[in-house]
Request: fold
Amino acid sequence: MEGEQADLVERAQRGDRAAWDLLLRRHREDVLRIAFRHVGPSGDLEDVVQEALIQVYRSLHTFKGQARFSTWLYRVVSNVAKMHLRAKGSRPRLAEEFAQRAPRVDTHAARGDDAAERMRRARALYAQLDRLSEKKREVLLLHDFDGLSPKDIAERVDAPIMTVRTRLFYARRDLYRAMASDPELRELYGELGELRRAAGQEGGQ
Amino acid sequence: MSTPAHQPKLMALFALEAGALSPAARARLHRHLQRCEVCQQARADLLVYERLRGEVQQLSPPPVDWRRIEAGVEAAIRETASGPPRRSGRPARSLGWASLAMAACATLAYMALPGRPARHDKMPPSKLARIDRPSENEPVTEPTLQRAWVAAHSGPFERSPTRPDAPGHAPLREGDRLQVPLGGTVDLNLGDGVRIRLAGETEATLTRLRDTHVSIELHRGTITEMVPKRTPGALVEVASGDLRVVVTGTHFEVTRSDSGATDVQVAEGSVTVLDAPGRAVAHLSAPATWSSQPRPRAAAPPEQPLRLATPHLASDGGGWASVALTAPPHVKAWRSGATSFATAGELWMRAPLGPLELTAEMDDGRLVQVPLTVVEEGVSLSARRLRALVPALAPSARAGHLTRQQLVEVVARGRGRMQACYEVALRKHPDLHPNVFLRLRLNAHGRVRRLAVDGDGIPDQLLMCLERVARAWRFPPPGGPLSFEVPLRFRAKGG
Reply:
């Protein structure tokens, strides 16, 4: 499989369109997953995926086969997602605000609808993640959301393991502080009181 | 003197959650937690985060429109003239020139082959002489190959024969066949200022691209052609079935219908229509229209001056670069100088380096100026970036509005059909009780412009059925784009 993959990449690098098409079909879901992990449930996801695929095409010649293709792909896609988040951070967020003001319609059982509420909570969490620095955010996503070990993260982000651990600690600390000052997130979850009691009770054990 | 606030023992709390504390340290921390409200609060926050994290981990990406994404990628790839940059790291532009040289060599080799098919060879030389073609007795210099290229296109098009080294924007060759789907346009420059536009649903072959003879065979659809006054002996023609429309300097349009009929409109100058043996069937001087059906008839000058499309004029040399724009949803057409492009998603054009004035025609009638600066690397802007650059293109500039009641009424009318979708899916999946989340975007007329269906474990059959139902919804016109979300919870009847 690895040999076949290497052959496919090499053919695509030589300008073989059929090989590129196959490569695209084979990895587009990976690109979507990486982009989704970075930007979260956002209306910009399709734009980011498209930009990332274009960047993969343009950067294909830089893949030398020294790292795994998945690692290289992750770096390319995550860089595009980071650029997107940077640009987003420097622009007025008309679309986001509009989306938040948009009417919500309930049909069968609107209140407490699980999927809808989960999606809202995820958006709120990503809004907090957007406050973190790029490096901290990336390490946190890889560790806490993708379940990667610090060693694997170090390879992905090209940094020493200790640096990864340090970034992870400060990322979590910053995130908790941000969450603590976000009443909407608490309201969304609606279980803080219960969790607090649980925290106290467990502490008493 | 005030005491500094107690800082929560975050490091220890992380370690506690990760199960990384020794029994003694765990006991110490638990004792501390019992009496420290700050740390209890911190731990509660941590538990909230843990729950959220668990939820987000479970979320899978929403379905995306791969067709649209791949079309965007394809358009960007076309910009890179000769495939992905090679390992040598040489810039794509230099490779583009290399392939241009190779294409020229290949075409010259092709021209040298005996028995090569050429449209004009079928014509009797004596008849061709009638239309300023050099006679056989005159010394004839070898006609040189014209440089021809795609100047602009809105929407995708197909070019054949397909060659891996010749993507859509590579120099055109004799024998190239172009197919433009409905809603698109392709503008070609065929050298010496000859420019043509292939309208939507048009198929044509470039049969001859020489300085003395340019010939296009129209298989179906419409070609609009602008030909500057030609030097004596230089010929431009459009072949449509057994007829040929021959010009020396004009602005005209030829349409070939599926039934084989040929219609000609002349806005400037004059054209001659020839039949298969080369006899003149009609001589048309602007303004004029002519049709081959029901039978060829004399030109009848129209009362009003004809207004034909103006194909884009562009150079394929230095000082020009490509501009690729994905039109935001409310842009109906683009204008650049005298040229107008109906949008079919993407506009690609060659433009001179420096400032470029484009005008977007919005579907609400507004004209929005889009000032761009064309740089050597070209300009490529997604719809989102364009909206960011030019706020007037943003839908939020005229956000639509509907009351909650208006939205609920339409959605409620589709409830029965959605329930039917669910019940059909239930036959295959008896334990199906999904929570579904529809994200809709309406246009100014109340039609569903974008739709995404989110939710965990929704079978494809149910997903497609719900999409069909939701896409058919017709809301009252909101007066502008409007986005909203519809959460649905499906449960079996009696369940």
Summary: Chain A touches chain B through 78 residues (CB under 8 Å).
